[in-house]
């Protein structure tokens, strides 16, 4: 098995690397990577429904979509991501526990008892330390997961704290869990980097495993995939299933009521009312907003056409 450590902390590059290695290599692969602050949604989720949009935007937290299903997770420099890419004879026999066994055994070496919970999670003391997901391509499977080691749990919590009832649709919804970092459970404290090196070392104890470094050809192909797919609004937000959005917000002594329908991330219908805008301005907005992306930039541009210099607070009412 090839063992890869990605040194690139761009989540788009790392997610693209997973797809590239899945589809273009024939050998089994184990990979470790970390990224800067990012909320990663599952393939079949509505990204906007899974994130605290104002917090994520104001704190420069990246939003990315992966190719596997499942729920939303948070990455930062204190989280280590692991990925297995393996050939399988029968995709029906794929077992999450088979892939998380390595993590459970590695943590046991550090004196930490982790257990599988449900299909996707690993728990320590009843708190989630790892979320996992899978994607099958032909007769190869990508299994990947997070390992919260020394993450900013406050930032994690705020990033995915969403108001219930705003978004409705058929998108997969996340199951919120109590989370914890691995580091506090260790008797002998180590850094996140030392933890990452430890995980790689455990894999390399098997003589059949060897380190593989991405070639220039690999890096160029991965970057191309990141630029053309994983960095795009069309993938990260436009891929969301059809949805409806409703919200009512108070700005000072005025109220705005918003109802939107969206498909592929673009607004198809809008009904904005309340006493924030005159009836004439609201009608103009409802007509002009159709076809626009449901994103901060497009919404702000439209609102400024109706009333110049609108505050960000008003724009965020649309999310």
From TrEMBL:
One of its GO terms (cellular component) is cytoplasm. Residues 24-211 form the BPL/LPL catalytic domain. Gene3D superfamilies: Bira Bifunctional Protein, Domain 2, CO dehydrogenase flavoprotein, C-terminal domain. The keyword Chloroplast does not apply. One of its GO terms (biological process) is protein lipoylation. It is an enzyme of class 6 (ligase). The keyword Protein biosynthesis does not apply. InterPro entries: aa-tRNA-synth_II/BPL/LPL, BPL_LPL_catalytic, Lipoate_protein_ligase_C, LipoylTrfase_LipoateP_Ligase. NCBIfam families: lipoyltrans (TIGR00545). This is lipoate--protein ligase. It comes from Tangfeifania diversioriginum.
């Amino acid at each position: 098995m090839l063992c890869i450590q990605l040194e690139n902390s761009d989540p788009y590059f790392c997610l693209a690397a997973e797809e590239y290695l899945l589809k273009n290599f024939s050998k089994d692969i184990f990979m470790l990577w970390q990224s800067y602050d990012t909320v990663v949604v599952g393939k079949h989720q509505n990204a906007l429904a899974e994130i605290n949009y104002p917090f994520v935007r104001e704190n420069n937290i990246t939003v990315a979509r992966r190719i596997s299903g499942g729920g939303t997770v948070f990455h930062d420099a204190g989280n280590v991501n692991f990925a297995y890419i393996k050939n399988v004879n029968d995709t029906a026999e794929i077992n999450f526990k088979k892939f998380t066994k390595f993590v459970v055994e590695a943590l046991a070496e550090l004196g930490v008892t982790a257990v599988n919970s449900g299909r996707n999670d690993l728990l320590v003391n009843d708190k989630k330390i790892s979320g996992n997901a899978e994607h099958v391509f032909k007769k190869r499977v990508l299994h990947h997961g997070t390992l919260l080691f020394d993450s900013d749990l406050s930032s994690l919590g705020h990033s995915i704290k969403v108001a219930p009832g705003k978004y409705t649709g058929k998108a997969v919804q996340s199951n919120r869990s109590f989370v914890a970092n691995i580091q506090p459970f260790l008797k002998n404290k180590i850094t996140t980097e030392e933890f990452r090196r430890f995980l790689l070392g455990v894999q390399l104890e098997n003589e059949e495993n060897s380190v593989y470094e991405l070639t220039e050809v690999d890096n160029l192909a991965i970057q191309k995939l990141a630029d053309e797919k994983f960095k795009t609004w069309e993938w990260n937000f436009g891929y969301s299933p059809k949805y409806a959005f409703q919200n009512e917000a108070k700005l000072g002594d005025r109220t705005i009521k918003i109802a939107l329908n969206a498909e592929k991330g673009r607004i198809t219908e809008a009904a904005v009312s309340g006493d924030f805008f005159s009836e004439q301005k609201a009608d103009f907005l409802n007509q002009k907003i159709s076809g626009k992306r449901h994103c901060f930039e497009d919404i702000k541009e439209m609102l400024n056409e109706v009333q110049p210099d609108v505050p960000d607070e008003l724009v965020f009412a649309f999310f």
